[in-house]
Write a structure and sequence with these properties.
3-oxoacyl-[acyl-carrier-protein] reductase, SDR, alpha/beta, KR_dom, binds acetoacetyl-coenzyme A
């Protein structure tokens, strides 16, 4: 039977590529979105991938949404916690709202996404947990104290779950994308973006598909011995 994968933020940007890659690999895919109904409808029309609307920052919405996905598609054995937002500002200008929004989506949202799925993975003795962190969780970034804090925190979640899940056949791994050609990066002022590209030895932004292929690799049953690891896919911009 086809495995079922949940991809949060799975209708746009890196998440859309991940959803498509997993579908091409034979998974049943549920892709979530927070608000952009139009983009989600267009995505389903184009790909045939099921979409579900909920806010990952809400535990109750996440739990109810996951129950619906499991009732319709079957138990989720692969979860890709990808949904993320930015609210960039230099620290002296960062508001508590900007801090809390990013923490709610990028950090608490990862808890909310994995926690309701975890008991089923333990029972079935199989699971693949993949968290999309960021290069900026590894190195920090000007104007991203909030975002960098969440992405570093995500690595802590992964390393802890790797230890807890191992005896149940569950792996937990992270991917730290560098700067990828998505709306999020295109929203960075052009001058700043150009200066960032100048720091990437590969000399270009990454493509969302390059991250999706990392997810496919980690999700495979054959990747059972990769646990607690971080794949840095950043064109050589930063080495850990
Ligand atoms: N390093 C050093 N200085 C920087 C800088 C950087 N990366 N970015 C901006 N600055 C400087 C500016 O040159 C400017 O300096 P001056 O005052 O001397 O001209 C100053 O900081 C900006 O100060 P402002 O008070 O004008 O800043 P602002 O309130 O207008 O905010 C900003 C502007 C939000 C910082 C904007 O520059 C920005 O968006 N920067 C990009 C931040 C970034 O890289 N975000 C990553 C988004 S992509 C992502 O997050 C995906 C991923 O995982 C990789």
């Amino acid at each position: 039977m086809a495995r079922t994968a949940l991809v949060t933020g799975g209708t746009r940007g890196i998440g859309a590529s991940i959803s498509k890659e997993l579908k091409a690999a034979g998974y049943q895919v549920a892709a979530t979105f927070a608000g952009n109904e139009e983009a989600a409808a267009a995505f389903t029309a184009e790909t045939g991938i099921h979409t579900y609307k909920w806010n990952v920052a809400s535990y109750d919405e996440s739990k109810a949404g996951i129950e619906k996905v499991e009732a319709e598609l079957g138990p989720i054995d692969t979860v890709v916690a990808n949904a993320g937002i930015t609210r960039d500002a230099p620290f002296h200008k960062m508001t508590p709202e900007q801090w809390n929004e990013v923490i709610g989506t990028n950090l608490t949202g990862v808890f909310n996404t994995i926690h309701p799925i975890w008991p089923g993975m333990r029972e079935r003795k199989f699971g693949r947990v993949i968290v999309i962190s960021s290069i900026n969780g590894q190195k920090g970034q000007f104007a991203q104290a909030n975002y960098a804090a969440t992405k570093a925190g995500d690595l802590g979640i992964v390393k802890s779950l790797a230890q807890e899940g191992a005896r149940y056949g569950i792996t937990a791994n992270a991917i730290c994308p560098g700067y990828i050609a998505t709306e999020m990066v295109m929203a960075v002022p052009e001058k700043v973006r150009d200066s960032i590209i100048a720091q990437i030895p590969t000399g270009r932004l990454g493509e969302p598909e390059e991250i999706a292929r990392c997810v496919r690799f980690l999700a495979d049953e054959d990747a059972a011995f990769l646990n607690g690891s971080t794949i840095s896919a950043n064109g050589g911009q930063f080495f850990v």
